[in-house]
Every structure is written in structure tokens, then in C-alpha cells.
Prior knowledge:
Blueprint: H1 2-6, H2 11-20, E1 24-26, H3 30-43, H4 47-63, E2 66-68, H5 80-96, H6 103-110, H7 114-125, H8 129-147, H9 152-158, H10 164-175, H11 179-188
Antiparallel strand pairs: 1-2
Helix pairs in contact: 3-4, 6-7, 8-10, 8-11
Amino acid sequence: xxxxxxxxxxxxxxxxxxxxxxxxxxxxxxxxxxxxxxxxxxxxxxxxxxxxxxxxxxxxxxxxxxxxxxxxxxxxxxxxxxxxxxxxxxxxxxxxxxxxxxxxxxxxxxxxxxxxxxxxxxxxxxxxxxxxxxxxxxxxxxxxxxxxxxxxxxxxxxxxxxxxxxxxxxxxxxxxxxxxxxxxxxxxx
Length: 189
């Protein structure tokens, strides 16, 4: 992928992907076109998916007003040793989010003291570890809601939440919708 992006004709794509590390929000009338392109990727197969992805990226770059979602203070360019530590935290979290994760456990993964872990994580990601793990769980719940193969209560427990009220609260905070309204809005498309 690096070689492809370094081709002179792909300079605008490379710049867009670098900007997108801070999150890009499409704001004008082109968001309908871009949304349709992104949705068509889901039903496409083989090389057509790649061409549609490139079309969507070019549309974002060339035809729309867009703004960055995170501030300049957002850090994604950690030093290599720091990058290894953050990656270890992310990978461990993704592998274990379905169960209760203790801070002592995460501190051991990060190879720092439990007292330092929360401060370290927040200083590097601009969010608490609890927020981060909730986002992973809600993201998994969204995937399961879209697949429509389980009821909402099963999805709650399958996503690592231990009670329905907590699941509903975090889901609404993160997505702005209840689990059922999220599912309905997606399945109606």
C-alpha cells in the first residue's frame, strides 16, 4: 500500500489519508454521493470494492467541504516504544473486551504500575480507559445489531456489558440512539 500511495498521481489520496488520522467529517451536499459510494462497497465483491473505495476517497478529497474531527492536540505519532505499548493495550483490549478487565491487568500489559496506567492512557489517547473499552463494546454491539441474528439482551451480554441498563446508557451516549432505534435505522436502509 505504501508504494501505491507514494506514486505521484496518488498524492491527494495520501494527503487525505494523513488528514483522516484525525477524523474527517463530510459537510456539504456531496455527503449523499459519498454515502452511496461507501454503502455500495458493502455489496461489491472483488476488485470492484477497491475501485469504489478509491472513488469514495477521491470524492471526499475533490468534491466536498470537510473538517477534521479531532484537535491538533490529538496524537497518533507515538515513538516506536510508546507505539508498542499502546498497540499492546489496544490488542489486549480487543481480545478481552467481552469480560471485565481489571486495571491491574492492563497495567501489567502496559508494563507500568497500576497507579500510572490511567494517567498514561488518558495522556496518550485523550480518553479514559473506561471510555475506550465502552466504545469497543458498543462498536461490537453495533455490528451484532446490523447482523440481526440475536435479540438486544443477548447482544448486551455478548458485547461485554453486564447489565442491560448500563448497555443502554453507554450505547445512547456513544451513538446518540437506543440499540433498537439504531438497528431499525440501519435495517431500513
